[in-house]
Specification:
The protein is α+β, with helices and mostly antiparallel strands. It has two domains: 166 residues, Muramoyl-pentapeptide Carboxypeptidase, domain 2; 63 residues, no CATH class. Helix content is 37%, strand content 15%. It contains eight helices and seven strands; from the N terminus they run αααββααααβαββββ. The strands form three sheets. A three-stranded antiparallel β-sheet has the order 3-5-4. A two-stranded antiparallel ribbon has the order 1-2. A hairpin with an 8-residue loop joins β4 and β5. The longest helix is centred in the middle third of the chain and has 21 residues. It is globular. Bound molecules: zinc ion (ZN). The site of zinc ion has 4 residues, from β3.
């Protein structure tokens, strides 16, 4: 268990960890079992953690997904409520729940390779450099891509206009590895979101609209736990995201 999100943030040693924590860190306040780390290093670490959990599977729509039991129980209650009103709550894809380490590497690599092709075709990056980055092992590659984005504004998001982290999680850092995330097809329906929120499921990753995270707390308890609400407008609708409240205090030396 962690004492507070703020303590956890201040204990982080690398920029990459701090960056990933500010994007995905809400999961650490979950009432279920939080991940033991911000970035799982490899498939063995993920499998060891996943096999220590109580897991439940269900078919939501056409896809079978698996989550931590507590998360699945609350999702099942949401599904029942929404169905009783004549609505639907279904999984968006076969990887809408549990993912493996390899899944997260594959999704990440797809965006990285597309981005390298794009920037190479615009002569913003040399073929040799693109190849070198493409061949880096996942953890080192994450650092290199975030550095490229920050220092040279070469973005690897789906439309090359913003960070890759708004399109895909870094390998080993996805909340889906902790089996506490669910991608819903009906994410744009406000009634669906209200029901999910009441049952402890929230938007916690800014810009990732189908993605909900099981926190298992009531909404009014979230600020106390170190989260702040950020509102963003998409297609004329307001979405609320609960993200770690991080105050960067820099000490400026004379
Ligand atoms: Zn997701």
């Amino acid at each position: 268990m962690i004492d507070s999100l703020r303590d956890m943030y201040s204990s982080l040693s690398s920029n990459v960890e701090r960056r990933l924590f500010s994007e995905y860190g809400a999961v650490f306040v979950t009432a279920a079992t939080p991940p033991p780390t911000i970035i799982f290093a490899d498939a063995v670490e993920v499998e060891t953690f996943q096999s220590s959990l109580r897991v439940e599977g269900a078919v939501l729509g056409v896809y079978y997904i698996e989550l931590q039991s507590q998360a699945m129980e609350h999702l099942a209650r949401a599904t029942d409520e929404i169905r009783s009103r004549g609505g639907c709550l279904t999984a968006r894809a076969s990887d809408a729940g549990r993912r493996s380490f390899e899944d997260t590497v594959r999704l990440w690599t797809r965006n990285v390779d597309r981005g390298l092709d794009h920037w190479e075709s615009l002569d913003r990056i040399s073929p040799a450099r693109a190849r070198a980055i493409s061949n880096l092992p996942p953890a080192v590659q994450v650092e290199a891509i975030l550095e490229l984005e920050e220092a040279e504004q070469l973005y690897f998001g789906t439309y090359f206009d913003r960070s890759i982290l708004y399109s895909v999680a870094a390998p080993g850092a996805s909340q889906h590895l902790s089996m506490l995330a669910f991608d819903a097809t009906e994410f744009s329906e406000e009634a669906v979101e209200r029901t999910l929120n009441r049952l402890g499921w929230y938007h916690t990753v800014a810009n990732d609209l189908p993605h909900f995270t099981f926190l298992g707390h009531s909404e009014d308890a979230l600020p106390e736990l170190g989260l702040k609400r950020v509102s963003r407008l998409y297609d004329g609708r307001n979405y609320n995201f609960w993200v770690p409240e991080i105050n960067e205090c820099r000490i400026i030396e004379a």
